[in-house]
Protein: 3'-5' exonuclease
Organism: Carex littledalei
Amino acid sequence: MAVFMRSRPHWTGSSSLFWKLLPLVPQPMCSIDCPSTCSEIKRSFRAHTLFSSREGAQGEIERNLCLLSEGQSTKEEKINAWLYDMRDSTIEKIRAGQIPLQYSNCMLNNHSRKGIAPAPRKVKHGTKYKVLKFGGRIVYCRTDSEVKNATMELLDKIKAKNSAGRVPLGFDLEWKPSFRKGVGPGKTAVMQICMDTACCYVMHVIHSGIPSILKSFLEDSSSVKVGIGIAGDATKLLKDYGVNMQSLMDLSDLGSAKLTGTRNIWNLSALMETVMCKQLSKRHSIRLGNWENTLSKKQLQYAATDAFACWHLYEVLNGMPDLEIEKESLAASAKFSNKKEKKNSLEQEKKNKRRERENRKREKEKGS
C-alpha cells in the first residue's frame, strides 16, 4: 500500500474522496476473490465516484481498497478466467443455459451491474486494455461482381443460422470527412458487415455501387443490423444510395437496457472497454483518412474490427437479462424467501405450543 501512497495518482474531482476515506477503512483489510488489477480498480473507482449516486458506493470503495492492500498492482491475475472467449459454440451454450453468464471484470462490481455508466472519451483512465483486433479473414470487395459474391456468401450463412431466429450482423459505414466549413461529408464509401469470428466483408461501395442483391439483403428483415448510431447510418445510406435499411438495433440502447436501466449515450469504444476490457484503435490518421481511395491494410483492419466489435458486443449484451427483469426476478425470489420464512415461523410456533400442552399434561399427571 505504501507504494501507492508514494506514487499517488493524479486524479481530479471525486478522487480526493478516495484519500479521505482511506484512513477510515478498518484494518486488516478483507480478502475478496476478485480478478481486478490495481489500475483497473483505479479506473473503476473513478467511474464509480463520478457517475454513480446509487447505494453501495461506500461498499465498492472498501472493496477496491481491499484489493489495493492485497498488492494486486504488479501483475494481472485471473483476467482470462473472467473474460469469455465468445466463440459461436460458447454463445449457443449461454443461450441454452448450459453456461451461467459471468460479467467481465471491467464492470464496477463483478457480481452485478450496479453503478455502471458510460465514461466520456475525454477522461483518461489509468488502465490501458489490450487493443481489439479482428483476427479472421477480411474479404475486400471493390467491384460489382465481388460485392455480389460476398452478399451471396452472407445469405448462405444466414440461411444456415436462420433456425435460431433473426441473425445479427455487425454493421458500420465509412466515408471521407470534410474539413471545410459549409461542406458536408462525402458519399458513403465503405460498408463493412460481420456476423461471426471467421470472416468480415469490407465493401468499397463508392466504386462498386450497391447491386440489387445487396439492396434487397439490407432491406430484408431476416437479419438484424447492429451498430452504434445505426439509425444515422441508415439515413445516410438512404440519402446516398436509396437503400431503405430495415431491422436495426442500436448498441447504445441495448447497452443502456442491460447495464444501467436508464437511457445513456454510449460510443463503441466506451461500451467495449466497459463490457469486454478491450480498447478499440481510433487513430485519427485512419478514422479521418480518405476512404474513397484503395484501402490500405490498416484501413481494412480498422473497418473489419469495428464491424466485428458491433457483432461481438451484441452477442454478449443480448445474453444478459434486462435490468428490470433482473429486478423483478430478485423481488420474486425475496418474496418467496419471506413466505418460506413466515411458514417456517408458524410451524415452529405450533410445535412450541404443542410442547407446552404436553408439558402441562405431564405435570398434571404427576400431581395427581
Notes: The domain at 130-320 is CATH 3.30.420.10 (Nucleotidyltransferase; domain 5). The radius of gyration is 27 Å. The chain has two domains: 2-95, 130-320. The CA atoms of residues 99 and 302 lie 32 Å apart.
